[in-house]
Amino acid sequence: MWRSDQWKDYELIDCGRGEKLERWGDQLLVRPDPQAIWNTPRTHRGWKQNAGRYARSSSGGGQWQNKSMPERWTVSYGSLTFNIKPMNFKHTGLFPEQAANWDFAQEQIRRAGRPISVLNLFAYTGGACAAAGASVCHVDAARGMVSWARENARSSHLEDAPIRWIVDDCAKFVEREIRRGRRYDAIIMDPPSYGRGPSGEVWRLEENLYPFVELVSGVLSDDPLFIVLNSYTTGLAPSVLTYILETLISKRFGGHTVSDELGLPVTQSGLVLPCGATGRWTSSN
Fold it and tell me: Global pTM?
């Protein structure tokens, strides 16, 4: 398991009974987590004294309760600064378990010894490649998420970094990039389990992931560096991601794939909360 265990501004304090207690900077939040199916004694004061708890509704959705946290604040990871803004669908604008992938991508870019262009698809609000010196094309279908990502770049003093900010359906954007002959040395894909495109197109990870990765392989350069492919769907084992990347990428470019779970260490138990899976293809063994 790849653990995101280098955080200082974020901490997963405890988890259980379908919820997790987290520290985001100096704010304690309680949010749902379907993976935390075990019981916990909940001895930490934060279970009762927190700045906000997101409670799901039996009719769907949910809302924040005991809401005393600021409308927004920042947390840092290394040289990166992220704006935290709890939303009405439980998210905060940041997935802290992805720090393990940020570290991986930055190391690959810095060790490459050449200019690297990165295509970041379903990019949400994060992304650390520009801080490592890469040029980045950041694509997400949600205009608000792209604006949020630009705020994060400014907060991280990356406002002048070579980043293209694109609001578009990821598949349609890739199709146009193929026609334009544009190529990228590295690709990061963080697709949702389920979603709808701007024209109502339905995305289901199990049905669409393989053809999507096949499409995306068409924008790889002749000397690609790495690919990161994330899956939050618990039904997909990490080995599924290996199979996809080995079939579509390694057979064409060589290299190799390693896939594993992502995890966040839990302070109270000393164990690790699983947070989905990641496949990493690299050009070198």
Answer: 0.94
